[in-house]
Automatic annotation (TrEMBL), chain A:
Porin domain location: 10-449
Protein name per the record: Porin
Gene3D superfamilies hit by this protein: Porin
Ranges in coiled-coil conformation: none
Signal peptide range in chain numbering: 1-24
Pfam families: Porin_4
Keywords: Signal
Source organism per UniProt: Caldovatus aquaticus
InterPro entries: Gram_neg_porin_domain (IPR033900), Porin_dom_sf (IPR023614)
UniProtKB/TrEMBL annotation, chain B:
Domain of life: Bacteria
One Pfam family here: DUF3576
UniProt source species: Caldovatus aquaticus
Signal sequence, renumbered to the chain: 1-19
Protein name: DUF3576 domain-containing protein
InterPro entries: DUF3576
Keywords: Signal
């Protein structure tokens, strides 16, 4: 027995560490790929007419204005038709060493960095089509050991190894490009696609496949991407990538659009999947977990408690743990046969609708997704549906003075005045997409798609520019057009 | 966090154990999800390869396709079938081989044990994919008569099929060798 064990160990050692088969070394190749699309959209949504005034400037008055709110507020009305284009350019580098090691890098440049218009001065502004780095990572892979990816990339759970998310028709149905046509009235857009977890700079391990199984794990120290520290001036501030406690952290449970500012820290993802087939039916099952810690609030001055039960002074420099750790499980499955693909996915845990950290005491997210698609020759049609419950506003607010001395969170429960907009209700979100595409030529698709999306939160005003408390926000979009990949 | 660390350690050990298994295969980059909008488009204008090559030589074509490096670029037919046919018919002298038209013609060959009998074979390769119906072999047989002239004779019906089977078996072998070396 001992001999057998020793022998087995020796064979395993040789397989893992010994010289591999002599292989042809390949000089690196550099490839350019990309994407272009142009769509027409017809949009019906709430929040398209500001009946009450809002406070963005009516005009830019030239030098020195710098987007200061104009004294005279203004109103606006939005139409229902629009055209929209978008493009991406990707660079792929691939090489292979003589020992079988493959390596390379992927650099993706997109041109929709800025969602909103930025008019700084009459002759000094930034266009919506600003180029920005999307995913950018290097990989090193050995056939028997798997691969390491290091850089700005989705994690194993955040897009690499998911199952049951059926988006292979139209532009992706409910996770498609209808969002480019919809204004954000209380975020009437979907954010909970796996890719919504973000491309924060991380290190990822992806295993080889064995008996149909493979798995992956990743770690990211914080939410940020790209180069440099993020600090906006010479001193330590909450804008710095490495900040773990700062004044105002409680505002970043939902990531700030654009600057990658969020409370998430020490994010780790684990995912595993099995792929195989039974009697001509292709099957995939995948599950995973994402966890993280969160940045903390930091008091910037001595604060006198107003809580009679916890009187005293909260010292300057006190940390408050206002956020739950990110703590989300997901599982999905899909089957493919005879051109049909059907799948379902379930996600549950402590996160808000934007994959951000919730306040302590807030509800977890609970979301289901189902989808079906059918491909026959150049035609693909499909539909998907998503339903989820989330924390709406929040059940508490950060108020260290009211929380009092000794509170570890600095949170106090919110209360609702009768008849006023209230953040205590749970938020429901659901929507469906139906779409199809026709392959005119390899890489060239004609698309048509219909998406309907609803947000409901009882007694919370989801459309503040309409009179009264609007508990709903709706968006319906029809889009059609052409897209091309090379 | 401690549970997660243990889980990660367990997964890493599992990975090492798996690496020792015969059933292990490396996962290609295109088997992972990709949330870029480019990835949502099925197919590419540039064909099967991922993007347009601007530097270097494309060696990523699917095995057995026209540009597969295993068989050498420039073939008009399946590289594995081509090499397998050459291997299989190599016991006969080669008269002509056209890799673009997919025709291999041997010269007459007499088995040493049967000097009064000779054979000639013509193989047609019909496509770029590794399929059983993409190879056809015709065998011709002549026997020397009393006057010393070669006279055409029928070939036993299974001979051509047996040669085709040998070619396909050899092609499969070449393909699996090629995949194992990747």
């Amino acid at each position: 027995m001992r001999k057998i064990l020793l022998g087995t160990t020796a064979v395993v050692g040789a397989a893992l560490l010994g010289p591999s088969l002599a292989q042809a070394q390949e000089a690196p190749t550099v490839r350019i790929g990309g994407f272009f699309r142009s769509y027409y959209g017809y949009i019906q949504q709430t929040g398209t007419e500001s009946v009450t005034n809002n406070t963005i400037p009516t005009n830019v008055s030239g030098v020195g204005a710098n987007q200061a709110p104009d004294a005279s507020n203004h109103r606006a009305r939005l139409g229902k038709h629009d055209f929209s284009t978008n493009a991406e350019v990707h660079v792929f580098v691939n090489g292979k060493a003589a020992n079988g090691l493959t390596y390379g890098a992927v650099i993706e440049i997109n041109f929709d960095q800025q969602e909103g218009r930025s008019i700084d001065q009459r002759r000094g502004s930034t266009g919506k089509t600003t180029a920005a780095l999307d995913e950018a990572y290097a990989f090193i892979a050995m056939p028997q050991l798997g691969q390491i990816r290091f850089g700005d990339e989705d994690g194993p759970l955040g897009g690499l190894m998911n199952a049951g998310v059926i988006t292979n028709f139209g532009t992706g149905g409910i996770y498609g490009e209808w969002e480019d046509f919809v204004t954000r009235q209380r975020a009437a857009r979907t954010q909970t696609a796996p890719g919504g977890l973000g491309d924060s700079t991380k290190i990822i391990y992806l295993s080889p496949q064995f008996f149909g199984f493979d798995f992956g794990a990743s770690f990211a120290p914080n939410y940020n991407e790209g180069a440099d520290t993020g600090c906006t001036n010479d001193v330590a501030s909450g804008w710095c990538d490495r900040a773990y406690a700062f004044t105002g952290a409680s505002n970043f449970g939902i990531a700030a659009a654009g600057p990658n500012q969020a409370a998430r820290r020490n994010e780790y993802q684990l995912a595993a999947r099995w792929r195989g087939s039974f009697g001509g039916v292709g099957l995939a099952i995948a599950g995973g977990y994402i966890g993280s810690t969160a940045k903390r609030e930091l008091t910037a001055a001595n604060i006198t408690s107003t809580n009679p039960n916890a009187p005293g002074v909260i010292a300057s420099g006190t940390q408050h743990r206002v956020f739950n750790n990110l703590n989300v499980w997901t599982i999905g499955a899909q089957a493919t046969a005879y051109g049909f693909t059907v799948g379902a996915n379930w996600t549950y845990g402590d996160a808000n609708f934007f994959w951000g950290n919730t306040f302590r005491g807030d509800r977890p997210m609970n979301q289901y997704m189902v989808g079906l698609s059918y491909t026959n020759g150049p035609f693909t049609i499909g539909a998907n549906y998503v339903f989820g419950t989330f924390e709406g506003g929040s059940r508490s607010a950060y108020n260290p003075a009211a929380a009092g001395v000794g509170s570890t969170t600095g949170l106090v429960p919110n209360t609702c005045a009768p008849g006023a907009s209230c953040t205590l209700a749970s938020m429901r979100r659901w929507g469906y997409g139906i779409g199809g595409n026709y392959r005119l030529a390899p890489g060239l698709d004609l698309i048509a798609e219909w998406v309907s999306y609803r947000v409901f939160e009882r007694n919370r005003d989801l459309d503040p520019v309409q009179p009264g408390i609007q508990s709903r926000a709706n968006a319906d979009v029809f889009l059609t057009g052409v897209r091309l990949a090379f | 966090m401690r549970h997660a660390s243990r889980l990660a350690l367990a997964l890493a050990l599992l990975g090492l154990a798996a690496a020792a298994c015969g059933e292990t295969r490396s996962v290609r980059n295109d088997e992972y999800g990709d949330d870029s909008r480019r990835a949502r488009v099925q197919g590419r204008l540039s064909g099967a390869s991922d993007g347009l090559v601007i530097f270097g030589v494309d060696r990523s074509r699917p095995p057995g396709s026209a540009g597969d490096p295993g068989g050498g670029p420039g073939l008009g037919v399946n590289a594995y079938l081509w090499r397998a046919t050459l291997d299989t018919l190599s016991f006969m002298p080669l008269a002509s081989a056209d890799p673009f038209g997919g025709v291999i013609i041997t010269d007459w060959y007499s088995p040493p044990a049967e000097p009064g009998e000779r054979f000639r074979a013509t193989a047609y390769l019909l496509g770029r994919t590794l399929r059983s119906d993409n190879v056809r072999v015709s065998v011709f047989r002549q026997v020397r008569d009393r006057n010393g002239n070669w006279v055409d004779q029928p070939v036993s019906p299974g001979t051509a099929a047996a040669l085709e089977d040998s070619i396909l078996a050899r092609a499969r072998e070449l393909r699996s060798q090629s995949l194992a070396a990747r």
